[in-house]
Amino acid sequence: MTNFEVRQYDAAGRLGELTVPRAGVTVKTPTILPVVNPHVQTVAPATLESEFGAEILITNSYILHGSEDLREPVLEQGLHDLLGFDGAIMTDSGSFQLAEYGDIDVTTEEILQFQHEIGSDIGTPVDIPTPPDVDRERATEELKTTQERLEHAATVDTGEMLVSAPVQGSTYPDLRERAAADAVATGLDVFPLGAVVPLMNEYRYADLADVVAACKRGLGEVGPVHLFGAGHPMMFAMAAALGCDLFDSAAYALYARDDRYLTVQGTELLSELTYFPCHCPVCTDHAPAELDAMDADQREELLARHNLHVTYGEIRTVKQAIRSGNLMELVDSRARGHPAMLDGYRALLDHAEQLERTDPVSKDAFFYTSNESARRPEVRRHQDRLERLPVEGDEVLLTEGSSSTRYDETWGVRPPFGPYPRELADTYPLTAEVPDRTDRAAYEAAADGVRRLVELHPDVSFTLVHDDWPATALDRVPDSVRLRALHARD
Hints:
single chain; alpha/beta; TIM Barrel; 4-stranded parallel β-sheet
C-alpha cells in the first residue's frame, strides 16, 4: 500500500502514481488496462505500448495455467516476452471463469505462485464474484470465503509482485463497505471492485455509483481502486469522480468483432454510419463504407484501433479535467449522453458529502451547467461552513442586491450556494458562472442555505429580499424569515 501516491484530487477523482516494482515502472492513473487474450490478440501488446501509450495491461493467468500450447512457453520465456510488452502486466486468477462456469481447478496459493513464476507484476487471488441482487445470506457467506482467501494470499511469498484484494459484497452497501475495510486490513496492494459487470451490462449506473461509493467508504484513500470490467469510455468520468483509478475491459476488441464502433456517448453499428464522428487516424483515413467493405480480420483490427483511440482519449480527457479542477463539469456533460448515465450522476450526487472530503477547497471556476450542479460537493461545503461564519447583528438582511443601512448587517445570497458575508463575494466558489435564467434547483439549494443559517442563529431576525424566487424555494425558507420582493423599499 506504499506503492501508490496521490498527486491531485477533484471530487474523489485523483491523479496518482502506482509504482510497480517488479516491472520497474510507474503507472500514472487513472488509466485503462486493455485485456489481452493470450490466444487471440486483436491488437498486439507491443502496438498497445507504442501506438496508444499503454503503461499496463491485464491478461488471464488461469487461461495460461490450463493451456496446452502456452503453459510451458510462458513458464520458460516469462509473461513479458511471451506477450512482447515492456510495461506492467496484471493477471487475473480465474475468478471470471468461476463466475461463468461455477468451478475452477486451482487454489489461491497455486494460482498466485503460478503468476509469480511467469513474471506477473500484479497478481490476483481466487475470490468469489458474487453477482448483484442475490440474497443476503449467499452474499455474506461468499464474502466470508473471499476474505479468508485474501488473508491467505497475504501470507504467500510473492516477492516484488503486487497482489490485489478484490472487494465483493453484491449490491449490499454495508457488505461492500465492510469487505473494503477488511481488504485494506490484509495489507495487500490493489483493490479491484468485483462483480460489477452485470450492473454495467444492464445500464444500472445508479446502482454502480452506490456500490463504488460504499466500497470507497471502507477503503478510504489507500491504494489504487480498480473497477473490474469497466471498459466503456462513457462511464470513465463518473467512476473517476467516485474515486476509481484503474479500468479494464476487452470491449475494444469484442465490440470490433461485432462491427461495433465506440463513442464516448455509446456504441454504433458500423453499417449504420455514413460519417465517422471522430478524428483518430482510422477515422480520418477511412470512410464507414470503406471499412464495411473490408475482409473481416482487417475490419476488426481497424475498428479495435479506433475503439482504443476513443478509450485512451477519454482517459486523457478525465486526467486533464482532474488537473484543471472541472471533473464534475465533465461528469455532467457525459451524463447527458444516456438516461442511465444521468441516473448514475444523480446517484453520485447523493454521496456529495463523501466526495467533499477530498474535493479541493479552491478551484479556478465553478460552472453551473444543469440543475444537478445545485447538489455538487462545493455547494454542500459552503453551507456546512456557515457555522464558522459569525453573524454580528440582531437584524440581518439577505439580498442579491445592494446593502441597507436599516439593518445591522447585510449578507449576500447567491444561488445555488445561499447566504454569504459580502467580504467573501470574490472568493471561490461564490465566483461561480451561473446562467442568468437560473433554474428552480439553484434557488431551492440557496433556500436550504438560508435555512441552515437561520437554524444556526435562532435569536437573529433575518429578512430575505428575493427576485422571482419560485414558490418551491420560498416554501423551504423558515417561517421566521421576513420576505421582501426585490422592488420593495426600506
